[in-house]
Design brief:
By secondary structure, the protein is an alpha+beta fold. It has a single domain (about 10-260), classed as Glutaredoxin, CATH 3.40.30. About 50% of the residues lie in helices and about 10% in strands. Strands 1-2-4-3-5-6 form a six-stranded mixed sheet. Strand 5 (about 230) and strand 6 form a beta hairpin. Helix 5 (about 105-125) crosses helix 11 (about 250-260), helix 6 (about 140-155) packs across helix 9 (about 195-205) and helix 7 crosses helix 8. The protein is globular. The N and C termini lie far apart (about 40 Å).
């Protein structure tokens, strides 16, 4: 995102949910493994261009066979044994709901996914203190829309959280057009979802419905930036959790007082 865009304050400005002080103190940092991912993307660019040129709009291409996405084992370990149902992660009887609004192109969302989410799951979701709800926004362009619909499709197989986490492990540069068919197919396969099922979901108007619902919830809650976290008793509602920085320790510091009776 350019400095000019940041000055204009357009919807979806990453990290603003942490507050202006945090925005200055917490410069954009690449998530762990970005160097490896960037190198892999650089090698794959030529292959992607060739594959896409040979590809019709109806038939998704297969992953290039370069070993697949990074973070597959880590993602499986993070979510192992935790129930998922569509956008929901965790015990549906949990007393509180933490709703996260994300854009799959948002680099700060990737930081939250990799640096905060595993600790939240181990400390709060597995013991049944919280359940999580995911709302996929599309503030940052066409790749955001494709990613949001792909994640919703994976949610129909009970793997939405896995899909988004693996996407964030392999996230490309915002606005670069990296969310190609090969990229999405690789994320789907690494998640354990049939890529064709995901591509069918991307093309289906049915999955526009949950995207519009997420947009309405974001508007009602005043959510204009990602990531945004709302804690309450109902999905998509509640008090904002504003950590000083995107680490689990900082997030826990902001969350704990709100969980006390």
């Amino acid at each position: 995102m350019s400095s000019q865009q940041a000055e204009e304050g357009r919807p979806g400005r990453e990290g603003e949910a942490l507050g202006e002080q945090s925005d200055r103190r917490h410069p954009r940092r690449a998530p762990r493994r970005d160097l490896a991912v960037a190198a892999a993307i650089g090698v794959a660019v030529a292959l992607v261009l060739i594959l896409v040129s040979q590809q019709s709009s109806k038939d998704p291409v297969e992953p290039s066979g370069d070993g697949g996405p990074v973070g597959v084992a880590e993602t499986r370990a993070t979510f192992a044994g935790i129930p998922q149902d569509g956008t929901t992660l965790g015990d549906p009887r949990a007393p509180m709901v933490l709703t996260e609004f994300v854009d799959l192109q948002c680099t700060f969302c990737a930081q939250a996914a990799l640096q905060v989410l595993p600790g939240v799951i181990e400390t709060y979701v597995r013991p049944g203190r919280l359940r999580l709800e995911l709302r996929t926004a599309a503030f940052l362009g066409p790749d955001s829309v494709r990613g949001a619909k792909a994640a919703q499709a994976a949610g129909r197989r009970g793997l939405m959280w896995n899909f988004t986490e693996l996407w964030f492990y392999n996230q490309g540069a915002e606005g670069s057009g990296y969310a190609t068919n090969p990229f999405i197919a690789a994320i789907a396969q690494g998640t354990g979802v049939d890529p064709q099922f995901v591509f069918d979901g991307i093309k289906s108007p049915v999955l526009n419905v949950p995207l519009r619902q997420a947009e309405r919830q974001a508007e009602a809650a005043g959510v204009r930036v990602t990531p945004t976290f709302l804690l309450g008793r109902q999905p998509g509602r509640g008090k904002r959790i504003l950590p000083r920085e995107l680490t689990f320790e900082s997030f826990q510091e902001a969350l704990e007082p709100e969980l006390r009776p």
